[in-house]
Amino acid sequence: MVPKRPETANGPGTGQDGAVPERPAIADATGVGAASTDAARQRLALAQTALLSALVAGAPAPEGFDRERLRVQSRALAAKRASVIAKVAPELPGILGAGYRSAFLAYAQGRPLTGGHRRDALDFAARLLAQDLPADPAARRQLAQWWQDRAGPRPPRSGPVSRLVRAARLAFRRR
Hints:
Layout: H1 34-56, H2 67-88, H3 91-96, H4 100-108, H5 116-130, H6 137-150, H7 160-174
Helix pairs in contact: 2-4, 2-5, 5-6
């Protein structure tokens, strides 16, 4: 049983004069006040941004981090991104063949993912086309057609009739 606090005539928790006693300012667990906490949060945010930039945007490794380990992790993240793009746009590896992964890794180096995976796939294809790649003219035409079909406000329809029309259009252009 918890003992009750004695009540004064002025109500619970009040002093003899009816005033509520002043509480001391509460500091965080480290004893640091709010101003120091804000500064620490800002330093942490800057450190996290530097680390993220090193991992996905090709920025130099922040102080105190193993540069080689960050390079390995950065390559792993870029490879994972290439795999996701291959699932989002399976036509790209088909068009580019064995050169897809190396071309995508070269594209992703220093370019963080910013508009989602669909936008990333479109930007990758646009960059290749701007560089007159792939070298094979037939593959370049296929890539240009793929980009034109998808660069609009919404992706192409995926129903059987739509696929048949696209296949017929592509076959007609090959002649």
